[in-house]
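Input.
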Amino acid sequence: MFNQYHWNNYLNSGGKEVAEMFERNLTGNFSEEYIYKITKLHSTYCPSKKIQQIIKDDLQSILQGENIRKVDSLDKLKKYIQKFLYKGNIPTKEIFEEFVSCLAYYTTLLSINSNTFYVPYYFQYNFNIFNKICKEFDIELGEIPASINYEDRFYYYESVCLSLENFRKKHNMNFYELCAFLYDFAPKSIGGMDYIIDINELPEPTGAYLIGGSQNDEFLSMEEDTVALWQSNPETKPGDMIVMYLKTPISAIDSVWRSVSEGFNDPFFWGYRCTYIAKPTKVKKVTLKGLRRDKILNKLPIVKKNMQGVNGVELLPSQYNHLMDLTKSPQLKLEYETQLNDIELTTEKHVEDKLIKPLLKKLGYKLTEYKQQVHIEIGNHNAVEIPDFLLLPKEIPGKQTAFAVIEAKFDIPNQKAFADAKIQARSYARQVLAKYSVIASKNKIFVSSVDDDFDNDFFVKTWEELNNPDTLSQLKKIIGKK
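Output.
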């Protein structure tokens, strides 16, 4: 939340000078001072030296006189790209890719030419940071366009500028103070580069994903300290294993990396879905021909498609571990302890203590991250709702919320008993605004989602099936600790 007191302190302790720097340089006196300052500010929240250089080169182009003075709106920029760069009509996709390939350059020029509407955008490849700033300070953004809607993604920048203008007016900032807020005050307030996890402090991997590239990719580097942005899967978690397939010139699995950030969507990144990766390790190459010959990996749909669209494809634990055996890699395997067989169960409490609690541990939950037998007050302080488990519960004045609920049953002998359990679990889930509802008996677990009001159980497995690491991995993706 925006705190006027903290903001005033910032302005009085150097922030005004930063705002004045923006004003000097965006009103006709663009200089080396601006390039130096923006590069320095950018380095506090972007870990990639190559991305930092891209921003610096874009700004250097402006200083060298590559200025489009008549372009003062996004519509005019679109026409300029069509007419002068491509000499005629081109698909919107090409216009969008040109725009985002030089995002700092174009948005800074728009800012200079438009006179305080278009905000220079220096979060290229870091929409995660910009989005976190907006959430922290209650800046309302429009919904991110779908990845294939290139025209909406192009004009989304204008929507962003409008949201920032509304925020600026609400808090009585001038345009240049807004720039100082965005690139100095706000990134430091949310922790700068805290979203990047140190390679020595990464958690154990919970998933594995394929990515693809070529040896001349701009961000590809095998240096030990490299941190690179790559198109991946937004479900990626810090610590996950990232398997690099080089399309050219070798058409082979070439290296294994670790994800050092959460995956995220970025409307201004041509690849849309991305994560930051680090610690590249070369492995024994497994060629496309080798993948096709392998009795396990040749069944992968991505192998059947000749690795087209490889970025972000998830590997099941058994597939990833098998691939690591083929590459003779020293990299971590995906380990899932199961051992849920041969347990004597005679009561509902046995189901809770001998099945559900061990499962929650395997799904990443600590004892402090779930509660049992929570009394939910319904009107006039009558405690009538008592779900067996709440995952990631939160208490706010007058309300109890949770990520998921689990209702334990010793046995569900018939359809009527199951229907009664569904009604009960749904009631609990609605009361705590849960995303998922789980029914767990001695035989099976049933998972449903708020998306259809907990009607359909989209994940139904026996406890024996959960002994399969791939099956347990699927469940972890759904209700595992986020």
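The two ends are 23 Å apart (CA to CA).
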